[in-house]
Amino acid sequence: MPIYEYQCRRCGNEFELLVLKGSPTPACTDCKSEDLEQLLSGFAVSSEGISQARLKTAKRKLATSGRVKDQKVAEAEYFKKEREEHGGH
Q1: Residue 4's closest CA among 23, 12, 56?
Q2: Cα 74 from Cα 12, distance rounded (Å)
Q3: Which residues fall within 8 angstroms of residue 15, CB to CB, at 6 or more apart?
């Protein structure tokens, strides 16, 4: 069965899709954009090294998203405090 890997040019999401004859045009699983780049797929082989590399990548993405969220929360709290101290609404 043909499984293809894609990366969305709009949001950067990477995903795999099973594409059969007559399948609709593929779209991003996150933002639904059809502006996709088909990636070169590796063989369906799993090894300890590949598993560790995927885990490391996933952890890095999770850590990055957590830092961004923490930064946005801190900025919101800062601006709220500034408004309260300076009488703004």
Answers
A1: 23
A2: 26
A3: 5, 6, 8, 28, 29, 30
Mention every residue, 6+ apart, whose C-beta is less than 8 A from residue 55: none
Looking at this protein, which amino acid is placed at residue 77? E
| AA identity, residue 34 | E
Q: How many other C-beta atoms can be found within 10 angstroms of the C-beta atom of residue 13?
A: 15
* pLDDT of the chain, 89 residues: tens digit per residue: 578 899 999 999 999 988 888 888 899 999 999 999 998 766 655 677 777 888 888 888 777 776 777 778 888 888 888 888 887 65
Please tell me the pTM assigned to this model: 0.45
List, as own/partner pairs, every contact residues 16-22 make where C-beta atoms lie below 8 angstroms and the sequence separation is at least 24, other chains included: none
Edge-to-edge strands, sheet with 36-39: 14-18, 3-8, 36-39
